[in-house]
Backbone:
């Protein structure tokens, strides 16, 4: 009589293996959104820190010179020294010494040179300055398309707003409308010399800088990178050519935040939504809105649900219409 020997079962059955794989898949599905949210929170925190540094730099500039830098300047006094080319510089260029970028600023010799100058490309060309870039932005172009090839910033100064959001006749300066309409009722406008005293609505009630670091979907569904420095870089300011005046790196508000529907890509006076225009909408890759810098150097999150009238009040430093909560 033979007695059958029992043998220990080794490993998993196919059913057990499939169950384990399914459990792991469920855990990954549950944890992945949390991991992604944590990463976005870290990126948003870094973006907030960038804006905070810019705010402190603008305040230190004011302490040093008794005014804020212009949003965009040309080559005339007091900002430039009459160099031949009319292309001046942006508020970001003027802020560099107060952002621990003094050596780069000195190498550029901004007061004596246009943003077209080859010396600027030698000094800061193809150089990334993290303070001017949002880590959440997925935009592909890092440097300007034309020389000098300097960094394209994900942030933009607020030059003001246009009453009626589409009324060209209400613009403060109607002579510079080749690429949109330009206002000067904000803190960082072209040729501006604003002080804290000129922000009569209160520094805590006025937007100074915002994000602009995400795609815009224009008519036809095509996505466009219309950051203001895409062509000439973050240091470019007021380009006062006859018949082709452009204001770089500061924006006159005319659109809602993160427009969901396609808008017209154009450089004419009716809109100015392009990389050369100065009416492109505020936008960011952060879900639900944009990070903004307020005049008191605080950083806040402005939701995309804010209406255009509230945005106008926040952009205008002197209209007497204060938005208490935003």
Residues:
């Amino acid at each position: 009589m033979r007695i059958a020997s029992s043998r220990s079962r080794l490993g998993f059955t196919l059913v057990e293996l499939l169950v384990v794989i399914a459990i792991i898949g469920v855990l990954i599905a549950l944890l992945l959104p949390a991991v992604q949210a944590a990463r976005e929170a870290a990126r948003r925190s870094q973006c907030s820190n960038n804006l905070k540094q810019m705010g402190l730099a603008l305040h230190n500039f004011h302490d040093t010179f008794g005014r804020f830098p212009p949003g965009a300047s040309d080559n005339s006094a007091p900002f430039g020294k009459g160099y031949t080319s009319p292309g001046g510089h942006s508020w970001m260029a003027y802020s560099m010494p107060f952002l621990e970028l003094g050596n780069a600023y000195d190498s550029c010799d901004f007061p004596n040179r246009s943003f077209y100058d080859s010396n600027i490309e030698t000094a800061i060309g193809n150089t990334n300055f993290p303070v001017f870039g949002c880590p959440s932005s997925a935009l592909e172009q890092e440097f300007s398309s034309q020389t000098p090839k300097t960094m394209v910033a994900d942030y933009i100064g607020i030059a003001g707003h246009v009453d009626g959001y589409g009324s060209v006749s209400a613009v403060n300066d109607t002579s510079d409308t080749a690429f949109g309409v330009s206002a000067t009722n904000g803190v960082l406008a072209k040729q501006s010399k604003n002080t804290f005293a000129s922000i009569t609505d209160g520094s805590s009630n006025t937007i100074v800088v915002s994000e602009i670091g995400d795609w815009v979907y224009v008519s036809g569904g095509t996505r466009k990178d219309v950051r203001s420095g895409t062509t000439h870089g973050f240091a470019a300011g007021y380009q006062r050519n006859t018949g082709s005046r452009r204001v770089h790196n500061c924006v006159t508000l005319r659109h809602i935040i993160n427009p969901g529907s396609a808008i017209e890509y154009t450089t004419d006076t009716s809109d100015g939504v392009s990389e050369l225009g100065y009416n492109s909408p505020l936008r960011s890759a952060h879900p639900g809105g944009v990070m903004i810098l307020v005049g008191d150097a605080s950083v806040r999150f402005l939701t995309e649900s804010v209406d255009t009238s509230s945005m106008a009040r926040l952009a205008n430093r002197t209209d007497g219409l204060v938005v208490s909560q935003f």
